[in-house]
Please model this.
Amino acid sequence: MTDAVQKLTIVMAQMTQAVGDLAANADAMRSVRARHPEADLILYPEFQLIGYPPEDLVLKPALAERAATLLAELALETGDGGPAMLVGSVERDGADLYNIVALLDGGKIVATRRKHELPNYGTFDEKRIFVSGPLPDVVDWRGIKLGLPICEDGWLPKVCRHLADQGAELLISVNGSPYEIDKDERRLTQVFASRVAETGLPLIFLNRIGGQDEIVFDGCSFVLNADGTTAHRLTDWEEEERETCWTKDGAGWTCAPGAIAEWEAHPADIYSAMIVSLRDYVTRNRFPGVVLGLSGGIDSAICAAIAADALGPDKVWCVMLPSRFTSQASLDDAAGCAELIGCKLDTIPIAAAVDAFDTMLAGSFADREVDITEENVQSRIRGVTLMALSNKFGPMLLTTGNKSEMSVGYATIYGDMAGGYNPLKDAYKMTVFAVAKWRNENVPRLSRNPVAPVMPETIITKPPSAELRPDQKDEDSLPPYPDLDRMLHMLVEEEASVDDVVAKYGFDRDAVVRIERLLMLAEYKRRQAPPGVKLSTRNFGRDRRYPITHGFRTG
Model:
């Protein structure tokens, strides 16, 4: 053997995880290694032994101890002469915790590197948990100088420049990079292409797939050669093990070209995010399926379709809960939707319960006019009924409110907000329309219910209504959804002021002032809302963390 290897086979294991189930994660990594006995090196995503993000779970001393034990066991197993492994884990040093990668080879841990750049924005809170490692040295492995920037280390230029200055020949960046709209191409063409241009080095970007509570990982791993060309693009949303073949000449290491996966465009990518996140949330929390109220409206219809795509229609139980205000058109649309999807539909009228509450409250409400209170009682009766079914039979209750409604408080706390998960939590109403129209014409690649259409066209075309009073329409109390979503996008995603919104779109200023006021007032409701998949750069909860009680307004 020469002093340095001239040919190299590196396997990129784009895989899912189980946060906190270290033994299962270790076994999954072993299985990957067993399938590639002739490879030189197997790469696994950031924190793969622990699962990411571990949040405060990683503060348990027992977790770090178990991780150290398993890492040592995995290292011993590389003494069989097979592939080396690059494994993400946690390392405790006294009272300090570090996010690390460990290179395992020849029966031992040959090197560890600690994450230097700790992200502390949006979904990330690493500075609260971890200590920043020093600027990492290169790892000299089998005569090759490897640079091992961990996730955020590659998103900023400092670490990669430092590694290049130290003589790195190849950059390997393992990541836990959550999905956001348009983030796949930004990672490739902007962030990591810049690292390659700055250093003149080839780079491997490895990401995971799968849902973890409110975030979901889309994979979209890739390899860039030193000249900036893309040698490999792995599939989005699915596990994949990709062998990459490298050779070294006078110009350095070059990766032979491989398959270039086509990543999903909008809104297919949004739909896949919803499928993966819901599937993993339901299955990993051991629910036998889901139950939801099917009203005949677009939000509940698309939630039923997502659930059937994620879990299969046999695991989706829809319930129509009509009141005296429910139209025949809504009854027909709900029935048509359930039939197209192929899921179970029951009907439980709530009129008797509404009458009972009217009787119960008649004395207390005697001197008051009928108002939104009575509307909310209907919604809460539906919530109690659905929760009773969930408790009795075990399926998780899905809520179906969209981001536009949640932004302005157009949802009933302890009513239609009751439930365990919301696929639409970060989807504005116009996004819901776009997704529903797309799904009616397409079968998602990840679907376990390959049928289309999934809802009557009338569900998409009719004016949205909560049907809590005669002839009610959403636009009776809200601006038209195209206008509302433009306002909200600026107020929420861009943190714009009322005057900024008026200047851009020319909306009536009083209307924007009212929407900003509703947005601020509804914070207490959002704090009590169930989790839902993050789609945007500013989802409620993980990204946008406003105080409930405050007096600031821009208008």
Summary: The first strand starts at residue 7 and ends at 14. The chain has a mean pLDDT of 95.
